[in-house]
Amino acid sequence: MHNPPPASTAAAATPFDYDAALMACARGDRTALQQLYQRESRYLMGVALRIVRQRQQAEDVLHDAFLSIWQRAASFNPALGEGRGWVYSVVRNAALNMVRSGARQVSMDEDAVEAADDQASLAAYAATGDPFELRADLGRLHGCLEGLEPARRDCILYAYVEGCSHGEIAERLKTPLGTVKAWIQRGMRALRECMA
Predict the structure, then answer these.
(1) Which end of the chain has fewer CB atoms within 10 angstroms, the N or the C?
(2) Separation CA 159–CA 61 (nearest Å)
(3) How much is the pTM?
(4) How many C-beta atoms lie closer than 10 Å to residue 154's C-beta?
């Protein structure tokens, strides 16, 4: 796919309806696919790159994923989740399938892949979200973080704000690595539920 021209500032300020775009793709509307690509491709490339670890393979994943989005858009069900999440899961699954098929050995464990996806999703939301809505969501996030046990909250903040690895967090907290991974995983699950 080629990169379409940048969106106008008025279009950038309007919230993008991912569900409607996917339904339009299901009807054969190529413009909707182009809008999805224009809006998300750089973030989705980051997701793919974190998993496959090679730019050329990440580009292949992104290409294949957008073909899959186009072909499978009719299978998207808004009652089961948001359109944006569905698009990200298609890319993530395409990247993981490439790794599993032996195209490239990767040393990332499932927790690291999930953490990379969370970071990419947060960056994508921050870049494209409505500023007022983003501030409101950040206020909710602050409240949700306050509701976590302090150790889980600290692990999440070290990982996502300071960019520490699981090993670095374990060292800082003088806690076993497996415990840190479990705290992050459970804490992120609790945050997702709180923010839903």
Answers:
(1) C
(2) 26
(3) 0.49
(4) 18
